[in-house]
Amino acid sequence: MDLPALQNGSIMSRIALYRKYRSQTFGDLIGQEHVVRTLQNAVKAGTVNHAFLFTGPRGTGKTSSARLLAKVLNCPNQKDGEPCNECELCTTITDGHCMDVLEIDAASEAGVEDVRRLIVDVIEYRPTVAQYKIFIIDEVHDLSSKAFDALLKTIEEPPEHIVFILATTELHKVPATIQSRCQKFQFNRASIQDIYGRLAHVLGQEGVEFEPAAVQIIARMADGGFRDGLSLLEQALVTADGKLSLQSVLDQLGLIPGETVDELLVSMAGRRPQDVLRLVDEIYRTGRDAKAILEAMLQRLSEMTRASFGVEVGASGEAALEAALRATASQLGIETILRLRELCADGIRDVRDVSLPRLWLESHLLSFGLVPVAEPALAPRAAQTTPARSVKVELVEEAPKEPVAAGPVETSPELAEAAKLWAQATGKLIEQSKLAASLLQKTRPTKVDDQSVTITFARKLDMDQFQDKQPKLLAAVRTGWEQARGDKEWSLVFEAERVTTKLDSNAAVELPAEGARLAEMTKEVFEHF
Q1: Nearest to 196 by CA among 313, 370, 103
Q2: What per-residue confidence (pLDDT) applies to 461?
Q3: Which residues pair with 448 in a beta bridge?
Q4: Among 223, 216, 217, 221, which residue's Cα sits nearest to residue 197?
Q5: d(CA 330, CA 379)
Q6: CA distances, 201 to each of 18, 96, 198 (Å)
Q7: What structural domains does the chain harbor?
Q8: Is there a contact between 18 and 31 (Cβ–Cβ < 8 Å)?
């Protein structure tokens, strides 16, 4: 099939790709080997159960497997647990016209009367042409409670010629009484590699040339579902001009190029607010909104996190794309990547509640560059060629209530003892947990009185994460402290080193002449926060 036929709809209007390429043998069912092996072994041994429950995410092959099982149970020519797909029974089941294989959509026929009419009242009748009368109930969790009650006795003791196959995406909604009477199979999300291979196979069958990077993006967006991947592919093919290119996929699916996202992230981490504003303007002109920008950034940061820890990232052999991703991840550093992920996650949660999303997004992204960080700065950019005006941004540390030194200092005996006890309370946690190490390694006692010990965090971000978002870690630290302190009455008090920012209009950091508005905006952000 050539691409013009796809574009004018002469073929795709009759049958969608996900229906045309539905698995017709167990060998075609990719990514569910554990299900295939068990079902085929049962068929070969003649020990097929009377009720099955297929559960898992959408688009992972539950309904296709139900139809395959119906075919292999009834096919007179089945061999090694595979249907022949040539006999009349196989072809009628594939087309959905077999009188003895009944598919019921529980989402539309969920009442007790529907169950009685479609199932209970007909189970006593033997199959017309097949060996088994098979009921496939899709989205079974949508049945009403009384419908489940009506179905229970039938599933528990069905006639020998009846087989039930239930499919659901929400197993927790299926009553335990139903689950206990079924043989349950868990369908898993497909890997990016599996989806990529399936999409490439479909494009080969359709005679469409493609760029691997384009198919790779679709495989990522499919989120583990073959059906979603084929639906997205079909959507992208509408605008493909002779070849499925990366740019056509980005345009059709409303995505942002990875290199643009990388440039935005590097600009934020490198404290270049003028570039952040420019890139947001450019992305907005392509029709993307604030939520799409944040989602693209979060997806890219997720890939960088995997790359930083040496975990498999890509689905194909696009060495150039993988190399660019790893280079950007190395440039940012894992600490900056994790902080940016937190910023984007918070933004996605908050963007729904703002009335001016673009202006809010600019302020939200710029706020990252105003927070001091411990990691080394990124490589400097080339010197600006445009006229500049001078704006100095100076960080001034306020003295804490008690002097806190970065290196070894003389301390009181009480403070030294508190530091020893704190090390005992947190030492094992830091060794066993990366999260505990990242939050607690830079903490230290800074003040001791008769009732409490003050523990100071280097960053308020870490203290907030520890106190508000890690209750189990907080409880473990308090338990360790109680064991370490012995008979002392010291409780724990947490605080963070305070850092304030002061603006000075004298020269220091060179910004372009058009940066005057940016400087005023930066000052307003400081005053607001």
Answers
A1: 313
A2: 81
A3: 453
A4: 216
A5: 12
A6: 13, 25, 5
A7: 3-12+191-253 (1.10.8.60), 32-186 (3.40.50.300), 258-369 (1.20.272.10), 388-398+499-528 (no CATH), 413-496 (3.30.300.180)
A8: no
Strand partners, 101: 134
As a whole number of angstroms, the distance between CA 221 and CA 252 comes to: 13
Amino acid at position 92, single letter: T
Nearest of 503, 509, 505, 476 to residue 492 by alpha carbon = 476
Reported as a single tens digit per residue, the pLDDT across 71-127 is 999 888 888 888 888 888 888 888 888 888 888 888 777 677 778 877 877 887 888
Contact 485, 426 (CB under 8 A): no
Question: What is the structure's pLDDT at 398?
Answer: 44
- The full DSSP string for 361-415 is HHHHHHHHHTS--SSPPPPPPPPP-S-EEEEEEEEEEPPPSS---SS-----HHH
Task: For residues 466 and 450, give the distance between their C-alpha atoms in angstroms, rounded to a whole number.
Answer: 25
Q: Which residue has the tokens 């239930």?
A: 166
- When pLDDT is averaged across residues 239-260 and rounded to a whole number, the result is 82
Pairing mode, if any, of strands 183-186 and 51-55? parallel
Q: What percent of the chain has pLDDT over 90?
A: 7
Single-letter amino acid code for the residue at 209: E
Rounded Cα distance, 378 and 451, in Å: 44
> Angle at which helices 258-269 and 290-308 pack, to 10 degrees?
80
State the amino acid at position 361 in one-letter form.
Answer: L
Length of the chain: 529
Q: List Cα–Cα distances, 378 to 336, 373, 522, in angstroms.
A: 11, 12, 21
Q: Which residue has the higher pLDDT, 256 or 241?
A: 256
**Torsion angles phi and psi, residue 421, rounded to 5:** -65, -40
Read off the pLDDT of residues 307-334 as tens digits, 9 standing for 90 and up: 888 777 654 446 667 777 888 888 888 8
At 528 the pLDDT is 59
Banded pLDDT at 523 (limits 50, 70, 90): low
The pair of structure tokens assigned to 183 is: 């043989």
* Token pair 């009442």: residue: 111
Angle between helices 290-308 and 334-350 (to 10 degrees): 150
Q: How far is Cα of residue 463 from the mean position of the Cα atoms in its chain?
A: 27
Query: Position 236: which residue type?
Result: A
Sequence-distant (6+) residues with CB within 8 A of 484 are 421, 422, 424, 425
